Amino acid sequence: MSISAPIYLDHAATTPVCPAAAQAALEVMTGSFGNPSSLYPLGRAAARRREEDRAAVAAALGCLPQELFFTSCGTEGDNWAIAAAVDLNRKKGSHIVTTAMEHSAVLEPMKKLKKEGFEVTFLKPDAEGNIAPELVKAAIRPDTILVSMMLVNNEVGTILPIRAAADAIKAANSPALLHTDAVQGFLKVPFSPKELGADLVTICAHKVRGPKGVGALYIKKELVSKIKPLLLGGGQENGLRPGTEATAQTAAFAAAVKAWEPCFPDRIRAVKDYAVDILSAIEGVTLISRGDAPHILAISLPDFSGQTVVEALGGQRVCVSSGSACHRGKPSHVFEAMPLPPKVKYGAIRVSFGPESTPAEVDRLAELLRHICEKKTLLF
């Protein structure tokens, strides 16, 4: 491998669009470009394609097509799920359970609800980023109206106990709806909404080699007639998600899902396991969490700022991150919530892998990190 070749190890931030997804989007934009709400043949053809794409994504998620509603992104899905659940249950209580390590698309609505008078319990992770099932069970009460927990944490790769939350809701005789942000888990860890016991599940395309600008929200069939839309407008998506349908994006989403091979998670995990062995052996590198998911690894260089390490590696055309891309250089709330030494939090970086990742790319990253730790400098 040429040293100058770009090495992309930030697949938890976004993924390269696969050829099948790009081709599907092009076909729809240049050929089947009709408005699905139009009654002439071009519009009806677009509507049929839209439903075929919905069925493909629903099949991959393990739900009925009529339970899947397309959105613009994971953030919209999270916001919609939280707002709808609270609106539906607000007369039954005022307590909400979430975690301190959620994506901002969940935490910011929670902060808003707290200001409005709701009681929000933020469960704290342990030093490796795990949330204990016992914590979840202890937090859920008869007046809990919503539990929102991500399936896979986007910065440390741990899998959260969603099924345990569903069981705890039932045991507490709570009216709570269960929402999970499964953006990082979709297609990478095996699950279905039914297996999780979830009422609402958020996914998006750009974490699975689809385009940005499209996601989906699973709504359990028993809730579909009760849930209110987040936006107001036309009657698209069965009246629940108005706006002219983004047919090119949904076609690309479906194509990416169909192009995802069953062997990909094992292939990704093999590279990650190799990275754990290689990177944790470097003196000066601390393994924060190897995570449960196949694609995310959190490490730290405690003698340096994680952000400056990321920038230095970027100068060598190696792409990693110091946390969620949404932080844009700010300290990660996930690492802050974990009981870690301050210097370990300060030096934290995330390495994340995709189907195209190779051991050779890990070797190059290790070479650069070894240089930083041995030379005590970010200069190359």
Quote the distance from N terminus to C terminus. Answer: 19 Å
Summarize the main sheet. 7 strands, mixed
Oligomer: single chain
Query: Largest sheet, order of strands side by side?
Result: 2-8-7-6-5-3-4
What integer is the average pLDDT?
Answer: 95
Specify Rg, calculated over alpha carbons: 21 Å
The number of distinct β-strands equals 12
Helix content: 25-40%
The SSE string, one letter per element, is EHHEHEHEHEHEHEEHHEEHEHHEH
Shape: globular
Low-confidence segments: none
Strand % is 5-15%
Count of alpha/pi helices: 13
Structural class by sheet pairing and helices: alpha/beta
What descriptive keywords fit this protein?
alpha/beta, 14% strand, 380 residues, 12 strands, three-stranded antiparallel beta sheet, seven-stranded mixed beta sheet
Mind explaining what this structure looks like?
The protein has helices at 19-30, 41-61, 74-89, 104-115, 133-139, 162-171, 193-196, 247-259, 264-280, 306-315, 333-337, 342-346, 359-375, and strands spanning 7-8, 68-71, 95-99, 119-123, 144-148, 177-181, 200-204, 215-219, 286-289, 296-300, 318-319, 348-352. By secondary structure, the chain is α/β, with parallel strands linked by helices. Strands 2-8-7-6-5-3-4 form a 7-stranded mixed beta sheet, with helices on both faces. Helix 4 links the parallel strand 3 and strand 4. The model has no long low-confidence stretch (mean pLDDT 95).
